[in-house]
Amino acid sequence: MGQITMTQALNQALDEAMAEDEGVFCLGEDVGAKQGGGVFKVTSGLTEKYGEHRVRATPISETAIIGAAVGAALAGQRPVAEIMLMNFVGVCMDQIVNHAAKLRFMSGGQTSVPLVIRTTTGVGVGFGGQHSDMLEAWFAHVAGIRVVTPSNAADAKGLLRSAIDSNDPVLFIENILCYGLTSEDPGKGYRVPLGKAAIAREGSDVSLITYGRTVLDALAVAEDLAAEGISVEVVDLRTIAPYDEETVLASVRKTGRAITLHEAVRPYGTGAEMAATIHEKLWGELKAPVLRIGGTFSPVPFATVLEQAWIPTKEEIVAAIRQSVGKV
Amino acid sequence: MSPASAADARLREPVPTDAIDRATLRDIFSRTMKVNRTDEKFRSLLIQGKVAVMYYCVRGQELVSAAAMANLTDDDYVVCTYRGQGEQTAKGIPPELWWAECLGKATGTCKGKGGTMHITYPAKGIMVTTGVVGSGLPIANGLAMASQNNGDGRVTLVSFGDGAANIGGFHEALNMAQLYQLPVVFLCQNNRYGEHTAFADHTDSTCIADRAAGYGMRSMHVDGNDVHQVYNAVKHAVDLARQGKGPTLVEAMCYRMMGHFFGADFSYMPPEHIAEMKAEDPLPKLRKVMLDHQFTKEELDGIVSEIDVEIDAAVEKALAADPPDASELAIDVLESEAG
Ligand SMILES: Cc1ncc(C[n+]2csc(CCOP(=O)(O)OP(=O)(O)O)c2C)c(N)n1
């Protein structure tokens, strides 16, 4: 079937979902044909096929966008709302945290909010402090919402389809640097289940647990270290919250060592949560303490040198692995 | 047509002065008294110490909710606030379920997991009751957007206070609703206070309805103590929305006759203000309209007695009902989890 980019994969997922279900519609800033099909072109071509009502280019009103998506979802539609960049979720946090995530529970299950919030972010493109943050931990900390991020094009398609199918609100994070990644086209109707991690590479010495763009770094490092005889298992969470604890624990039980890795800053991050769980549940079986790797605890800087120093480097990952396996 | 004249043509809409037929008047009276008697009952339970929950009193605003809800069908959607007892009762949530929810019982509309500030009852169109000021307006747009997308002819009404008109979401929602011509009615119940802050102390606007013009939207400004004005204004707004003619902002001037929540201090309300609002009390005014329309005292008292019997029975049942089981904590968080 050939190769597709992550952008194409996401576009296909939306296209297929909209073709199959009249209730699926997109809304967000600049998503329409007149606006060029979105800043990253993910929605391009959809207005022509489905019309302006199903690809609603909105005013710059994040609260109104997510509020409308919540309302439409309550009324049985399946909106896919786009927040142009993840930092802007701060503007509509109330609608996500107090409404989307909680209405099912507070209504005693009478209503549900089957909405997808697509957003994009990523360190390494020189956007500076207000356009680069990975804020997944904010949402992982709230009960009632799923948080998903793909690390490759095929997963992007399959996860977005499952997110649209889901009767729960899903925050779907796309890393800008991943849009150009290519995969074999997984074909029509492809789905990756939510809440299931993937073993991106098998290994026996240490489990490197990560998601999103840093999966690429993890795989590269694992490849390099294999030559030295260090066998790294890379776990790609795919769904960050609630995460696939079973797969994570099974991997660590096998290797006896674990390192969590994410682009988001290290303190209070999702890696800390997983590390704590691993310690609690596998204490007697661990051969080394669980280590955490994350971004530097400062705003994301602008200058290229600083930005590269901010982001977890391959050297840091290698050093952590050596520390964990005791081969410093 | 220049943009300015297009906007002007849609600005302040005259409030229709139609007569209200007797059956509708009776219906409005009954809904109003149901709201009032529920409010009275809640306050008496609180005073007697029989229950201890947050309750946001609606004394003084009963008529606005009742006359507004009388224009909606069960299928129409409503979004309201913590001070939503009026909308909830007048839209028809069965008292048994409503009281059980307010008292945190398993038999409540939301299994006791929502409470007074978060009542949901889709069977009567009550989709969201929010405790976050101003956040209902954007959600109302979405409900209306769904109706517009699938052509089901439903209208969404969202009720909020004067204080909420200063939240960003209010402005975003008005702009978006007008842009898309959504079938939504924005009902501002201007009860003159946002918690302890008087209307004049939170904005220099003298009229919230005027804000609609900034978005090219129609508006109406009515005396919320006058049954004809409230009913006709909301009817007109609902009719227009149903005909695909877009949103309207209706501001109903009323008074919050008690503190912010029941039991709260309201010494900050000046005595002359209290005297003014007592003179404008919507309930005696409505009763007078009813008598003018040849309803007899006996008939009106009979309606109220029936309501009291129903409410008393609902309260007794709710008081005796069981609280939710602790296992409910794991249910309804995400769909696929327990339950
Ligand atoms: C966003 C937000 N800010 C503050 C509060 C606290 N608060 C609760 S009610 C209220 C006053 C709101 O006044 P208004 O909108 O006029 O409604 P009313 O209570 O008069 O019906 C405030 C400030 C809140 N619930 N939400």
Write up what this structure looks like.
The complex is a heterodimer of chains A (328) and B (339). By secondary structure, chain A is α/β, with parallel strands linked by helices. Chain A has 12 helices and 14 strands. In chain A, the strands form 3 sheets. In chain A, strands 3-2-4-5-7-6-12 form a 7-stranded mixed sheet, sandwiched between helices. Chain A has a 5-stranded mixed sheet with strand order 9-11-10-13-14, sandwiched between helices. In chain A, helix 2 links the parallel strand 2 and strand 3. The radius of gyration of chain A is 20 Å and the shape is globular. The termini of chain A are far apart. A 6-stranded parallel sheet of chain B has the order 2-1-3-4-8-7, sandwiched between helices. The structure holds thiamine diphosphate. Thiamine diphosphate (TPP) binds next to strand 3 and strand 5 of chain B.
Q: Care to give the gist of this entry?
A:
Chain A is of the alpha/beta class and 328 residues long. In chain A, 36% of the residues lie in helices and 20% in strands.
Q: Estimate the global geometry of chain B from the Cα principal axes.
A: globular
Q: If helices are DSSP runs of H or I spanning 4 or more residues, what is the number of helices of chain A? A: 12
| Whole-number mean pLDDT of chain B | 95
Order of strands in the sheet with most strands of chain B = 2-1-3-4-8-7
Say how many strands of chain B there are.
8
Give the mean pLDDT of chain A.
Answer: 97
Unreliable spans of chain B:
1-9
Oligomeric state of the chains in view:
heterodimer
Features:
heterodimer; A: alpha/beta; five-stranded mixed sheet; 12 helices; 36% helix; B: 339 residues; two-stranded antiparallel sheet; disordered N terminus; binds thiamine diphosphate
Topology of helices and strands:
The complex is a heterodimer of chains A (328) and B (339).
Chain A: E1 3-5, H1 6-20, E2 24-29, H2 46-50, E3 55-58, H3 62-74, E4 78-83, H4 93-100, H5 103-106, E5 116-121, H6 136-140, E6 146-148, H7 153-165, E7 170-175, E8 182-184, E9 198-201, E10 206-210, H8 214-226, E11 232-236, E12 239-241, H9 245-255, E13 258-265, H10 270-282, E14 291-295, H11 304-310, H12 314-325
Parallel strand pairs in A: 2-3, 2-4, 4-5, 5-7, 6-7, 10-11, 10-13, 13-14
Antiparallel strand pairs in A: 1-8, 6-12, 9-11
Chain B: H1 3-10, H2 22-47, H3 62-69, E1 77-81, H4 85-91, H5 95-102, E2 126-130, H6 136-150, E3 156-161, H7 168-180, E4 184-190, E5 193-194, E6 197-198, H8 199-202, E7 218-223, H9 227-242, E8 248-253, H10 271-279, H11 282-292, H12 297-320
Parallel strand pairs in B: 1-2, 1-3, 3-4, 4-8, 7-8
Antiparallel strand pairs in B: 5-6
Thiamine diphosphate is lined by residues 83, 131-133, 160-164, 191, 193-195, 256 of chain B.
